[in-house]
Amino acid sequence: MKRAVLALPLLALFATQVHADAPMCASTSEAEILALFNQWNDSLQSGDPRQVDALYAPDAVLLPTVSAVPRLDSAARIDYFEHFLNDQPKGRLDTRHVRIACDSALLSGLYTFDFARTGAQVAARYSFAYTWTGERWLISAHHSSALPAS
């Protein structure tokens, strides 16, 4: 009995230490991740490439729909969005798949862009990878490519 009484405080100390060392992950939901897409889509409506870029992590990778050049920093992303926003794009999710992990999330599927200035429509595949910074979610990688003809 004495051994059990002595072991209890040690067990409690160990359990506290294990809990303290466990990583704390940001909690999120599919609805919150979808809201991040809506925030990005709304930023396109602003016409301000800097407002769009503010949703990306500083070292985020953008592999855009209508450019063959990977955009690896803020200046390159702003350059891309300066041209992309000229046609007044608005996206809509046609399909979506959300995967949530510790401090990260992935939104992928198919979307369509309607371009108000030209009347054009582009269907594309997309992937948005989001990372929790400790304060907010930012896009850490974004891939978009036009759907093949068949």
Automatic annotation (TrEMBL):
InterPro entries the UniProt entry points to: Ca/CaM-dep_prot_kinase-assoc (IPR013543), NTF2-like_dom_sf (IPR032710), Steroid_delta5-4_isomerase (IPR011944), UCP028470_steroid_isom-rel (IPR016887)
Entry's transmembrane regions: none
GO molecular function, one term: calcium/calmodulin-dependent protein kinase activity
Pfam families: CaMKII_AD
Protein name: SgcJ/EcaC family oxidoreductase
